[in-house]
Amino acid sequence: MKRLLTFVKKEFLHIIRDYRTLLILFGMPVAQILLFGYAITNEIRDVKIAILDLAKDDVTQEISNKILSSGYFVSYENLKTAADIEPAFQKGIIKEVIVFEPFFGRNLEKEKRANIQIIADASDPNLANMMIGYTTAILENYQSGLSEDKILPAMIVPEIKMLYNPNLKSVYMFVPGLMSVILLLVSALMTSISITREKEMGTMEILLVSPLNPAHIIVGKVIPYLVLSLINTVIVLVLSMFVFQVPVNGSLALLAGISFLFLITALSLGILISTLSNNQQTAMMISLVALMLPTIILSGYIFPIDNMPLLLRVLSNIIPSKWFIIIVRGIMLKGVTFSYIWFETLILVFMTLLFLVISIKKFKIRLE
Amino acid sequence: MNDDFVITAESLTKKFGRFTAVDSITFDVKRGEIFGFLGANGAGKTTAMRMLCGLSIPTSGNASVAGFDVYKQTESIKKNIGYMSQKFSLYEDLTVSENIRFYGGIYGLSKDAIKGKTESLLEKLRMKDAGNKLIKSLPLGWKQKLAFSVAIFHEPKIVFLDEPTGGVDPVTRRQFWEMIYEASASGVTVFVTTHYMDEAEYCSRVSMMVEGRIASLDSPHNLKNIYGVDTMHEVFVKLARPAL
Questions:
Q1: Domains, chain B
Q2: What pLDDT is stored for residue A148 in this prediction?
């Protein structure tokens, strides 16, 4: 026990001395959460548009005003002819053109049908989709205002409710994924690097010849990163709860328990990586390529798994983060209890045990 | 068990698959001796040493180190030996005192003992003011001496040195050997592998390994007489020739 304590103390000294790594360790989670919280948003604001009004009547004027006063769009220029549309887009300033057909108001009144064309710059497909969505919503809103004083034969009015994230805040979606990425990065990457560094420097041999046994070495390496990762988890949670008001609807204790479990998963992965690599570069490459990339892409962190091809959907099942993210979203946003997530938890436990058994076996073989 | 021998090996063999790295070596090392283990790269020196340190289980044969069996009592062996490898074995980002405290700690020395011994050690090495300096800021010669001092800090019965002077300048090597002599005089048995033949001259006895076997084992003086040459280098060339 005293030996273990000596070892842990030494590890902490390594970490503290290496202030650059320390900065990354604590700076990265904060930077990431602020970036994801503020920069990635599904809202649009003050998008510059052009209007080609071939009718120039009261109705088109009213609709134009409604669009421009929404706060989403500002008018950059008024076009005269259809030939102006293409050059207007090419200047790269406007992102959308709205075209009213000639005699728009008269058509609407007499034939109950008028055409409006919305042209969006789809070189950025996401933005184009969002602009179209917002514009259509404004038009629909205008139309339902028209029909108020007239009796329509029948109408279906959808009432939409966004459950668990009513304002569709992207930060709600990113926080669970971010937690898993940070835990993985700090725990797996750092542990594997710190073990392979001992190998590279030749100090591992000295440790193995000493009365410390392999369990001491592994546990001693793991404890400091366990502590750091716990601190990081708390930072991410506090930031997301108090800066971005992400709710924790479920039990905080359950969330803490699951995070702890995932930490152990990540740490055992780190040990596994260190047994596969002989130097720090290899450890870093394996961690980044084999761990970080699949975690970011295949875990459902950013891209929805349900929309992926079958092969990737199947593959995503072996990514520990996928299960962690499902659990954390469940607890934080839906407020579910353990009875809803026991299956995912079981998978994580199983994965952790598997990694631990393999890495301890590999570690022992290395001693030979 | 003869009390005079701190290491005994009998037909000690290590095979990796079909390759025999160490082929039935038999030798004894006396207490306080400086025992040189010489051979070309790949002759099996390091493998033999790893078995004696309890890092690797022999394929066959018997050996005991400090009176403990290399098959069953590796834990006890580890407590009684010191080890220094050719790779520099102190932590560069820790200070001198922190390194000493760490190695003292993992060998189970008490805090007070470590404190007292650190002071006298630094004084002896004339590094009293360097206690709080980071290892990486020290000159190589100092590091080397410090690494050796750390390897015998817990007063082991035997210290294993695996090519300890690789890449060190001649002056530092000489000073380093003075420290080895001093340790040997105080009763520590020194087991050293090297491929510097001039260092072989400093040993009490030398075992020449060729292709996993001990080709010859005697004092440097006797070896030179047997082979009728003037230097250990020539002895080595004569012995190693059949392998080339």
A1: 5-243 (3.40.50.300)
A2: 64
